[in-house]
Write a structure and sequence with these properties.
about 0% strand; nucleus; transmembrane; Nuclear pore complex protein Nup85; membrane; 15 helices; mainly alpha
Amino acid sequence: MHSILIYYYFFTITFFSSFNDGWWFAVHIMDLFIHGNYIGNDPNDHSMKRLRTYLLRNYADTLMSHCSLWQVGADYLDYCDSNRELLELYLERIPIKTEAEARKIIYLAKKRNLDNLVKTVSNIMTSKALSNGKLGTALTWVMISRDVRFADEIAERWLKDYAQHQKMEGLEIFKNMGSCMLVSDKLTFVGKYCEFHKLYCEGDLKNASSLLISLIASGLAPTNFQIIMLVDALPLLESLENIFSRKETYQLMKCLEDVIMNKDNKDTIDNSDRVNMIRLALVRNLSRSFVIETGDSESDGEM
């Protein structure tokens, strides 16, 4: 009798599978039979489990191909065998037209620990943003993907643009990077350079100068950017307070000589007034710091 009932349920499910309703009825009648303990009770009988998986996959396939129901399809796939691989394949094929759609896919992928998919989608959106010249948007996607190649490209583009126009508004996009700046050395440099300007604007000249010196010493700046950092040092060198020590002034002098000796900078610095201004400011600061530091050491000796 039990076998007859099983056959009846199996026939019923198979019959409803032929309905042109996108497998909806067959999937849910199957679940009713299983949860009602009418079928699927025998641990040695895997036929019903295979049938249920088959129905779920087909129904999920119908949902995943729908422009607004694919998120529901992802939930159904959670109950299939090999669901991670299937879901990743489906999500990869969804055409991403908007940022909102991309974020929905990333949300589903993160929820199911599909890290490769998260990075793939983020990189696609980063590439689109860079193609449209939206560095700020590209940076938000890099914060998700942590992709070194794109992080370097964003930093290089920003440095090139800043070197040409030196617009302070461009600093805003790197304001809240947090740990994202550690993704690549170039992005770290840009983040720290923005931090220097922030400290300078806040009047924290001592910390700003220390950060500028460390950036110059790091060697991460492009050759055409070193002269910009030296120009940034000018108001600090001319400050009433002695900001740079003698040792730091020597570091700035070495940087200036490196800039002058670099053939790539030849066209921009030959007979440049700003080079002469920097050189004069460095000499003045060296003289001042020498007097101050010598005086301090003599005072310490007398004590």
